[in-house]
Amino acid sequence: MTPNDARPYQNTVAVLTTMHCKERVIGPVLEQGLGLRVALAIGLDTDRFGTFSRDIERTGSQLDAARAKIATGFEYAPYARVGIASEGSFGPHPYIPFLALGRELVVLIDRERGLELTGHFASPETNYGHAIVSDLEAAIAFAARSKFPEHGLVVMGCVDEKPAPGLALIKDVDDPATLERVIGQVLAKCGAAFVEADMRAHRNPTRMRAIETAASDLVRRFRSQCPACAHPGFDVTERIPGLPCECCGEPTHVIRAEALTCQACDYRQERPATSAVTADPGRCGSCNP
User: Which has the least CB within 10 A, 62, 81, 128, 282?
Assistant: First the structure.
């Protein structure tokens, strides 16, 4: 089997650890791209690895959580060769104020080959957000911004303008009548309600599309083979700054090259990150200290 085989995993079954219907988008992409047939680890509670609603905190990184899911899937299906899991993360955009960013990982582990590959997708195209409301009208306004009811909501208690899931936590809010009822319940109990977009994949079509894109990136990475040893997953591992300033020639923070590395033999290759040979002086620390 090589990365360039039309369907390198033809007739291979991969165990997917999810309870939020991610097989709907991951399964077709991996079957068409790699020949993998996805089977679910039915009955496994993936909420134990952390929830977006804060009732269970995630420990470790996003990648750690995906690996833990795969390990649990292998316990469920001890004879499976390939395990699949996905994990999402949402928060403020690191560079653009007042903008949210969603990051998706889809991870494949082939324990027969000792292979681990990760597909990535990051985008500000997300409905991630929350509002603290003291009346139904404010909740309805937030719901409209969150693409409700196509996208679900989570309503929880609120104390000192902070979420209090220990006081109240209602998931699967997916219609106006339910929203009105649970907002009334939480307001009566807490005086305010913390309302947020439900980021679980089966309640969030926007996120589901992002997971599908990450799965496609996983296929792309599998098919990118090392020039030295043909191992799959030869891809960018580092972006190198230093494009020289057009005016003074000093290195800038603008990315000049990308480094691709093989995880099997450590072969490394650099390629230009841009067709430009110099950077705008406005990006230069010497010309614009």
Answer: 282
Q: Does one domain contain both 135 and 245?
A: no
Residue 36 lies in a domain: yes
Task: Output the pTM of the full model.
Answer: 0.90
Sign of CA dihedral 176, 182, 188, 190: negative
User: Rg of the Cα trace of the chain?
Assistant: 23
- Residue 211 and residue 80 share a domain: yes
Examine the domain organization and report whether 85 and 181 are in the same domain: no
Beta strands in the chain (DSSP E): 13-16, 37-40, 82-92, 100-110, 115-123, 130-133, 153-159, 162-173, 193-197, 235-241, 255-261, 268-272
Residue 279 is part of which domain span? 235-283
* pLDDT (tens digit per residue) in 58-78: 888 999 999 999 999 999 999
What are 107's strand-pairing partners?
85, 118
Listed as ranges, residues in the chain with pLDDT below 50 are none
Structural domains of the chain, count = 3
